[in-house]
Amino acid sequence: MLLPLDTALGTRFHLEHAPIERATVEAALADCELPADLAEAMTSTDYDTLLQASHEDGIQRVGLEVGTPIISVNGASFFGPVVTPMPKGEAAARLWDGVVLVTGTDGFFELKRTRDRRPEFAGQ
Fold first, then answer.
1. Which of 57, 75, 77, 95 is buried most deeply by CB count within 10 Å?
2. Residue 28 belongs to what H/E stretch?
């Protein structure tokens, strides 16, 4: 249920450059056949404590000198992977296998290089 909504929102915000406002969120919810009143969450503070706790948990796992995304695999946590365009199918499986491999390497901390392109979103 979350993937279709994430895709609908991402398409509107990133590809169509729609304004980040309630009408845009309601349109995405409608596309996913979800209730429009879920748009209340975009201005609610009800979830702030849980979101802050989740963020803090991630930072505790990896340290302060990283960003998001943060993933945890087999007890090891890392920032990343940051990939554009997003691999699909067998290429995604190979990437995941590599992530699992490095998490099992004692003392592995980081791979990094300068980005040489802007993010590519589906449909661009």
1. 77
2. helix 22-31
Q: Give the model's confidence band at 93: pLDDT under 50 very low, under 70 low, under 90 confident, else very high.
A: very high
Which pLDDT score, from 0 to 100, does residue 1 have? 63
Kindly list the distances between the CA atom of residue 38 and the CA atoms of 22, 29, 94, in Å, as whole numbers in the listed order.
10, 8, 37
Q: Label residue 75 exposed, middle or buried (CB < 10 Å: 0-12, 13-18, 19+).
A: exposed
Judge residue 25's burial from the number of C-beta atoms within 10 Å of its C-beta, 0-12 exposed, 13-18 middle, 19 or more buried.
Answer: buried
Q: Residue 43 in contact with residue 20, Cβ under 8 Å?
A: no
Record the pTM. Answer: 0.66
Please check whether residue 108 is in contact with residue 102, taking contact to mean a CB–CB distance below 8 angstroms: yes
Domain layout of the chain by residue ranges: 2-42, 48-103
- For every residue of 57-109, DSSP letters joined together read HHHHHH-TT--S-EEEETTEEEE----SSPP-HHHHHHHHHHHHHHHTSTT--
